[in-house]
Task: inverse folding
């Protein structure tokens, strides 16, 4: 019955069991119960399509794949030094390219986890404001509701400056949300 807390805790659990099917189903159900349907920016959708493996394959699996392919890269590179076969060169290059992509994916994920703080609105309704005080005008016509996810842009005493998935930004009281 508490959509905001449900989404918050499912997101927290996602860090420990990232590819759990039951967790994803429960998270999707909780997200479907949200009042606000905020569509991500078009660029985000393009990135999710182009780099599907970054989003669909868990970090630990990508790390193991990187390790295996990087090892194979050196094995095939050594073989190529001895036997100058064309197919060995192509296999070596393929291993190198895929290893590089996986390494970049892991680096991006590490950066996001250390620099981007996400949160969820917990209050039933919260008015997004243009500044960090109740005296500022509302940013949107409608209030934001429990379950809306955001990225923290800035934090001031008692206030969060947040960015929604569609790129809109506003200030909300710190008590209205909790960080993942």
Result:
């Amino acid at each position: 019955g508490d959509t905001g807390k449900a989404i918050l805790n499912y997101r927290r659990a996602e860090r420990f069991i990232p590819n759990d099917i039951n967790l994803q189903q429960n998270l999707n159900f909780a997200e479907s119960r949200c009042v606000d349907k905020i569509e991500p920016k078009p660029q985000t959708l393009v990135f999710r399509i182009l780099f599907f493996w970054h989003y669909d394959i868990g970090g630990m699996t990508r790390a193991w794949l990187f390790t295996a392919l990087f090892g194979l890269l050196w094995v095939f590179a050594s073989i190529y030094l001895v036997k100058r076969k064309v197919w060995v060169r192509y296999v070596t290059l393929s291993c190198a390219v895929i290893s590089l992509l996986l390494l970049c994916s892991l680096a991006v994920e590490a950066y996001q986890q250390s620099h981007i703080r996400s949160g969820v609105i917990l209050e039933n309704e919260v008015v997004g404001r243009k500044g960090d005080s109740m005296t500022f005008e509302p940013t949107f016509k409608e209030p934001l509701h429990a379950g809306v996810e955001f990225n923290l842009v800035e934090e001031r005493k008692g206030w969060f400056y947040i960015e929604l998935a569609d790129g809109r930004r506003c200030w909300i009281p710190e008590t209205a949300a909790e960080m993942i």
Summary: The mean pLDDT is 91. Residues 137 and 144 are 14 Å apart (CA to CA). The first strand starts at residue 118 and ends at 121. The two ends are 19 Å apart (CA to CA).
